[in-house]
């Protein structure tokens, strides 16, 4: 059981788990959607960005690109850039391709793309490659005190 799944159970949040074969080394999100037979609009990827020492987590649909200007605006930063994979792993405690927004080593400010509000449930990484968890967007927002913003394009 991953820290993310333990956390969701501990909070009493209603969620589902989805296991799949992870046989890729990049574009984990689109692979997960295909393996699970779900529309890409419902499966979300977790990305980490930074400016100086401020790091934020951005969660967007796997079929979207990140809008860096919108992320910076929503996070109240001058600009942002992607965090190096090794730094993301060190900060979150998860491996790239399995970084969950839940139960990271240090809880970071979290941004969720506005498209999530159009879905009854979204899937995010459950804390390891080949594991996703599904939950209502409102639960996601409440658990992480997430800011909802148009960060995907």
UniProtKB/TrEMBL annotation:
Keywords per UniProt: Lyase, Protein biosynthesis
Domain annotation YbaK/aminoacyl-tRNA synthetase-associated: ranges: 32-142
UniProt superkingdom: Bacteria
EC number: 4.2.-.-
Any Pfam family: tRNA_edit
SUPFAM superfamilies: YbaK/ProRS associated domain
NCBIfam families membership: YbaK_EbsC
Family: Belongs to the prolyl-tRNA editing family. YbaK/EbsC subfamily.
Protein name: Cys-tRNA(Pro)/Cys-tRNA(Cys) deacylase
Organism (species): Pseudaeromonas sharmana
């Amino acid at each position: 059981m991953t820290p993310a799944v333990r956390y969701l159970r501990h909070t009493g949040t209603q969620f589902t788990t989805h296991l799949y074969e992870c046989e890729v080394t990049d574009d984990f999100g689109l692979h997960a959607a295909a393996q699970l037979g779900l529309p890409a609009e419902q499966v979300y990827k977790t990305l980490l960005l930074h400016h100086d020492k401020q790091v934020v987590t951005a969660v967007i649909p796997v079929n979207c690109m990140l809008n860096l200007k919108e992320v910076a605006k929503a996070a109240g930063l001058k600009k942002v850039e992607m965090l190096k994979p090794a730094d993301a792993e060190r900060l979150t405690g998860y491996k790239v391709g399995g970084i969950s927004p839940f139960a990271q080593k240090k809880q970071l400010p979290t941004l969720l793309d506005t498209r999530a509000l159009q879905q009854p449930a979204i899937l995010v990484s459950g804390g390891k490659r080949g594991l996703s968890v599904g939950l209502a967007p409102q639960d996601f927002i409440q658990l992480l005190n997430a800011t909802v913003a148009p960060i995907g394009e």
